[in-house]
Amino acid sequence: MVFKGGHGTNTPSARSAAAPAPSSFAGRAGQTVLAYIALTKPKVIELLLVATIPVMLLADRGHVNLPLILSTLFGGWLGAASANTLNMVADADIDQKMKRTERRPLARHAVPVRHALIFGLVLAAASFAWLSVMANVLSAVLVLVTIAFYLFVYTMLLKRRTSQNVVWGGAAGCMPTLVGWSAATGTIAWPAVVLFLVIFFWTPPHTWALAMRYREDYKAAGVPMLPVVAPETVVARQMVWYTWATVITTLVLIPAAGLVYAIAAVLCGGWFLYAVHKLYSQTKAGQEIKPLKVFLQSNNYLAVLFCALSVDSILNYSTVWQLLGL
């Protein structure tokens, strides 16, 4: 994250009329459980899987420590669920104003805000405790830092104040790389930092593509996303810059990986660059654009790239450094 902009009736009475509450206890309980699950934004947590597993495999190249990977994923999932829940608490007011978010639990009053706040804090504590025991304290602390950064820096400080919100606030989404590496090794090394930067540079074009599609939603909510405050040509040009930065950064990791990753980084990078350059050319020509297509392709790009890194790490063929005799 259907991608149709615009606004509809968003009053509690209208929502109730559209979806009447179930009369049975089991029905109400089921809806409550689903509402709490929705608070965690399950689909967004997919990035946790995409980023954490390949990093852990690279950190322990040639080995698959499945118990540690699964334990780290669970602890990371608890942390991501906490961050997403607390984000919804902070954004409950604007979620009611956006077509894309008006069905979120707090926007439709399916869960009391106070209960959601407690739920988010409990998830944070559980994440810290789990990772401290099952991995190490460093990875647990990094998850808490991620939650705090996402809530206080991105959601509460940057999101409603600057068009560069996702540039700097997006750093929270890069943290699974550091968490995964630290869980596997107890330290943070340069390959983890490179992968952190890959996601850091990837986030703006990925998010701005979606924001171009939902421009009117963000405008109505008072969120100054770049597509709200700048012409499409300016947005697309910045997307090109960040995409180039993403692809170049993926190449920096090649010496520490093998040929499977190297080939994927080059081919997928060219594929992603083509899509973003095409969008930019269309904005300059005043043609109809399809930013959602770029958004989906950005997801596929990162997934394929990190899957290739996983395969490369499991196969444990000679790294490019070794092939060059370095």
From TrEMBL:
Its main location: membrane. The chain crosses the membrane at residues 68-90, 111-131, 137-157, 178-202, 241-274, 301-324. It is found in: Cell membrane. InterPro entries: Protohaem_IX_farnesylTrfase, UbiA_prenyltransferase, UbiA_sf. It is a multi-pass membrane protein. Pathway: Porphyrin-containing compound metabolism; heme O biosynthesis; heme O from protoheme: step 1/1. Its EC number is 2.5.1.141. Residues 12-22 have a biased composition (Low complexity). It is an enzyme of class 2 (transferase). It comes from the Bacteria. It catalyses: heme b + (2E,6E)-farnesyl diphosphate + H2O = Fe(II)-heme o + diphosphate. Keywords: Cell membrane, Heme biosynthesis, Membrane, Transferase, Transmembrane, Transmembrane helix. Residues 1-22 are annotated as: Disordered. Carbon 2 of the heme B porphyrin ring is defined according to the Fischer nomenclature. Belongs to the UbiA prenyltransferase family. Protoheme IX farnesyltransferase subfamily. Converts heme B (protoheme IX) to heme O by substitution of the vinyl group on carbon 2 of heme B porphyrin ring with a hydroxyethyl farnesyl side group. This is Protoheme IX farnesyltransferase. It comes from Tsukamurella pseudospumae. The gene is ctaB.
